[in-house]
Design brief:
The chain is an alpha/beta fold. It contains six helices and five strands. It has a single domain, classed as Rossmann fold. The protein has helices at residues 18-30, 50-61, 76-82, 95-111, 131-139, 150-159; strands at 6-11, 33-39, 67-72, 87-92, 116-121. Strand 4 (87-92), helix 4 and strand 5 form a beta-alpha-beta unit.
């Protein structure tokens, strides 16, 4: 009897984006089970609570029957052992992601040689998306509805009510800043 392969897709998911969903879909098409696992990091200030992040992920991924959502705290390799998994899924957007993720994969291999890391490259349309960029754009009135699921967009509106648009401040052309000595 073939043993089902369970993969863990960890991240902060603060909030989950269409890029995260793309990676989860790809993983779900390869592995028998995928557990999207929201990291509880007490050293990082999150916009959404762990319960809110799990709820948004569950809602966004509910159409994938072999994907579940949970959360964890501590070392990822310890969590994988508790979940009886030997597979970590990591999404890559750009080469800069690869350098960091490669280092983490090597460290995880050092800690737990039985665990493998699989990298899934995102679709180019999502290569510029990150949760922090989404939050920043939304807070300043930019449109993000095309890069997050509807439930996340709704929660962003609840968390950051619309404000009167502000005109960006700029240095008028020709105006030079003077230094102490009077020179520009």
């Amino acid at each position: 009897m073939k043993r089902a392969v369970k993969a863990i897709y960890p991240g902060s998911f603060d909030p989950i984006t269409n890029g995260h969903i793309y990676i989860a879909e790809r993983a779900a098409s390869i592995f028998d089970e995928v557990r999207v696992s929201v990291l509880v990091n007490s050293q990082k200030r999150s916009t959404f609570s762990v319960d809110e992040r799990c709820s948004m992920a569950r809602e966004a991924l509910s159409y994938l029957p072999n994907v579940t959502v949970g959360h964890f705290q501590g070392l990822l390799v310890d969590y994988l052992r508790c979940e009886e998994s030997r597979v970590i899924i990591r999404g890559l957007r750009a080469m800069s992601d690869f350098e960091y993720e490669f280092q983490m994969a090597l460290m995880n291999r050092q800690l737990a040689p039985e665990i493998e890391t699989f990298f899934i490259v995102t679709d180019p349309q999502y290569s510029y998306i990150s949760s922090s960029v989404i939050r920043d754009i939304f807070q300043f009135g930019g449109s993000v509805h095309d890069v997050v699921p509807p439930g996340v967009f709704r929660r962003l509106r609840e968390r950051f009510p619309p404000q009167t648009p502000q005109t960006p401040q700029r240095n008028p052309a020709g105006e030079q800043r003077k230094t102490e000595g009077g020179a520009p």
